[in-house]
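Summary for the funding panel

The consortium committed to producing paired sequence-structure records for every protein in the target list. Below we show the first two records in order, beginning with the earlier of the two.
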Amino acid sequence: MPMDAVDSAFVLLEAASQSSSPVSMPSSTTSESTSPVELITTDKLLIFFPNFTSIDLVCKTMPKPESDSKVIFCCEAAFTGELLLEFKHSNIADPHVSSGQWYKGYTCKANTGAFMWYQGSWRFAKKPIDLHPVADKGGMAFCQHLLILDGKTQPMWERMRKNKTQYRALCEKDHRLCIIESKNVITLERFISLLEQQHVTNAIYLDMGRGWNYAWYRSDDNKVEYLHPLIQIPFTTNWLTFIR
């Protein structure tokens, strides 16, 4: 009997989990370091390595350091479509999986890839990809603009190449997941060049839209550190969340 799309996706995910690419098993999700998040600073970049046990896509309300004690890093993930006062999953770009639940989202041509986490492993992949199997496995996933895949820089829209902002991406470096952001406002082309210099093997853009860069993490002695000033705007929708 021919396999349907979901069955086919399961086969692909299972096959990938038995190879070195594109699924990566965390070689070090925990550390002897006392810091929940290790920070490496270069002259151009901030590189954050969360020492996590799981990842989720939190939607609607951003986790707070005071009430979400298990969260060690939290930042924006997928694009938001419209500036709406009420929350709707349909306002998040493309299909996404939050706490094991699949949601359709709206179609976003700018998104070229996806990130998935399920059963202790992660995967970066190109669109189109069926995320239902990730939900069935109790995982999380979101779609965004893919920057680097398996060590190869991905095509950019020409109009995006020279766009300037303070960029942030979810990356795989040295077989570990990390969040890398630029210290200053630079072009996307320059940001990707800096990721290449760091020998990043996989990278997917992180951006909720409309300049949303506010994030927070826990450093030494569980101290909460904030990245970029918080602008009290009600149009936020989803967050990449690392959990200890």
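The next record, for a separate protein in the list, is shown here:
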Amino acid sequence: MSQSPAPTERSPFGQALHQGLSELASSKRMSAQQLEVIYALAYAHVAQHQYAQALPLFAFLSQYGATRKHYLSGLALCLQMVGRYDEAICIYSLIGTLYPDTPDAALRVAECQLAQADTESARAELVRVLELAGTSGRHGQARARAQALLNLTAREAGA
């Protein structure tokens, strides 16, 4: 289930951050199995669009599994869905630093920026998503969504 890129894919800062977070005492207090039971509950709340209920669970998970991408992604999504965009952007940026191999976090940053009516920053982030997605089919959905949002913001700017 690990979605971690090889350490060489991270920037030196990203690698040092990942290692430091991995070595936190809190990351050893609960077993992976215990955390996954809590994750199942948090995921069930998200599946039912109960983001406010899932938020404290993902916050807890992110403290005890600070380098687990799915915990951080859940936390960021909940923050985004309850309208706490600045905090969501911070967590999505952390994900992008720890896991630079996918454009999904950058796409979510752009969505938060659009929700805050920061179109200029969102457009710059969407261009970055397109660069990160490349031309391979691996990130086709992210590339298509970024392009659609970029086109939409261009039309709105011209209107």
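Regarding this second record: Residues 140-158 form the longest helix (19 residues). The two ends are 45 Å apart (CA to CA).
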